[in-house]
Amino acid sequence: MSLPEMPASWPMTVAGIRRDLQLFEISPGVRIAILNILGDSELVLAASKALAGQLAKCNADVLVSPEAKAIPLAHALSVEMQLPYVVLRKSLKPYMGEALASETLSITTGQPQSLYLDERDRVAVNGKRVILLDDVISTGSTLQGLRLIMRKAGAEVVAEAAILTEGDRAKWSNIIALGHLPVWVDD
After folding, report:
1. pTM for the model
2. Could you tell me whether strands 184-185 and 30-34 are parallel, antiparallel, or unpaired per DSSP bridges?
3. What CATH number has the domain bearing residue 144?
4. In this predicted model, what pLDDT tens digit does every residue of 160-182 receive, in sequence order?
5. Strand 62-66's sheet: what is its strand order?
């Protein structure tokens, strides 16, 4: 008897908005659901309202997000909470001055990536209370890179948040999130 075929998508409701998330094989026999918020204004606005309500008690000064898929969330949450936001870039540009850097490993590409904090943005987070923000937290590698750079920049991380966490739910008990995704592993 064969196992049932893996569905092509995973239905999910986040902040009252339903989406069918495409399943993507990241390595042989391992699939994750892909949340792509780029261009999805309805989901971004609903998620930012829901997260703002949960993050209000953190008394933060600045939101910090990695480039690129989390940028719409950082912007919408910035408007909702009336806080500035800073984006850590994935490539170093000459105008960034003495940028701080850390390396992460992306679950979707399987390749090391660097994160850079612009010299100008170092001033914006130094001595500030920050919320680390991402669209989906899967392995924690990007989150660890954000933490490292914030520590180097002299910022205090007061909360970590995402639209969704993924994988081992117990590992993310300290993350403020609107939902959780499993990881599918073929037997």
Report:
1. 0.89
2. antiparallel
3. 3.40.50.2020
4. 999 999 988 889 999 999 999 99
5. 85-88, 62-66, 129-137, 156-166, 176-181
